[in-house]
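Hey, I'm writing a tutorial for new members on how sequence and structure tokens pair up, and I'd like a real worked example in the thread rather than a made-up one. If someone can provide the structure for the chain below, I'll link this post from the tutorial.
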Amino acid sequence: MLAHALSFLRFRSPTIPADSHTIPCAALDLESRDIVLTNGLVIDKRLDLEKLEKTLFTLVETKFPRAGARLAFKNGTYELQIPHSFDADTPPVMFTIESHSEPYSSSDRPTVPVCSRKPSTLPMPLFEPYFRSKECPTSLAGFLRPNVPLVHIHVTIFADMSFIGVTSSHITFDAVGTGLFLRTWTRIINGEDPDAIPGMPLDIAPFESFKGTNVSNRKGWFDLGFFSKINFIVRFVYRILRDGEEVVRLVCVPKAFLDSAKLMINEKLRLEGSEEWVGSSDVLMAWWYKTAYAHRSPSDTTPIHIHMPMDLRGFPVFPGRSKLSVPYIHNSVLSIAVPPIPVNAFRTESLGELALRIRRTILAYTADLEWMRSAVEFRCANPFKDVFPAPPGAEYAILTSWRAAKFAELDFSGALSASGGSAKVLAMFGYPNSGKPIPFRDTGAIFNEDSDAFWMAQVKGRKEWDRIRASGGLDFY
């Protein structure tokens, strides 16, 4: 079945040139430094490999040279070392391919999931081998090796489908940054003049001015004392030992389901004379946590601290009270923390009440520009400080949303192998890795929003997934 496999390793030099441009990593880039993330796109057509490689190199060399950096750790500081020029031994990115002449469909390959008419969950599709080459680093240590590009692109193509994987240390991108990088790539692929497309200036440092001495804690995160840390860690480890197998599942929520619920909630608020409202993401989060905690005891009052990201790019918190006016691929995110909710409230409160809790939190945080500046100052003053998402005796849940990256809207039509037609994104997935035993329990990410549904991954223990199945409200496949 396999026609042929090609893997182009584009560098051989053990070190990068001594005259590389060096830029210290911003503090916001270091919080998730131990995570290596592979973002994978499934495209509905066969793409031209030569066109992909050529435009990719143009993208990095002309628009995002910092994506062509190598990562180094010197004198207690992480830094980006950017070669002044690229060649076969020092490529801007690692680009590897695997090519198949036959169609993708086969009994021994995972199928691209399709959402049912009701909220449902299925095992996380095992597409990782199509998105990442065997040589690609899966740990921070792997990216710290000499002359290892920070961005690795792996393309697997079939006669009727293509898989594009983007792998990097979390130091390089956040979700919106990945979306900016890919969207600019597709603009070049589709024939736009690179000179007319905005890029990221080489020396941009939007968080440099925040290097103050702010030592106040971040709202919603806890700077625990020694014994409180031990208490938190022991409780967390005990929970994991009771349900030791960590399982990632893909959850699909139809838009028709969310739209109907949102309409009913907003109509009820209107009839009550309220000017408040909820959005689709509020309802999605409220539904998920209501479903995920439905199996807990009605008498269980354990506080649940829910965290979600907030992109800073569009807020006037940067020097001169300005917004970021140029593309910025690195991390620019703070965490919004919903005031703790007793776990039994997810059984007793309505979907509308829970969604309104979330909406009020978002509105309060996004209106508080001084908090944003203070939180960034704290991060910059304490780049390696451990803070905790909940106090001892409480639990936490983290849901990252990649909606703003708009992965489903990417258009690869300009890279079609055959002329005519379009090349669209069928699905998008994310796969985190780390060289350290980082627990991902009770975390999740909204990967993608297509015309029919929201898709997200959620990490739970196997026993807890069994309890969620037994409680109903979610179809299991």
